[in-house]
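Q: Sequence in, structure out?
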Amino acid sequence: MKDPRSIIRRALITEKGSKIRETENRYYFDVDPEANKLEIRTAIQTIFKVDVVEVRTVNVMGKPKRQGRWEGRRSSWKKAIVKLKEGQTIELFDTI
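A: Exactly. Output:
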């Protein structure tokens, strides 16, 4: 199995994520595109010492971009939506 810190790339902090975090106790993360739900679950539990109830994943396609006459594309990435056990929180999100 991979290192948990290489699976979880960064925490996604957005307005939508903040609203869902307060109402449904769900957290958003940018994760390794090769990681599956079981690896994401164990990585979150190892890093943050919390109990994960549910993991949902979304493959986000990169947007096409232009600069002058050159066209390119942003990189595609994978987003994980993690639901924690009732009453538990991740302190990283609480400080923001």
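The first helix runs from residue 4 to 7.
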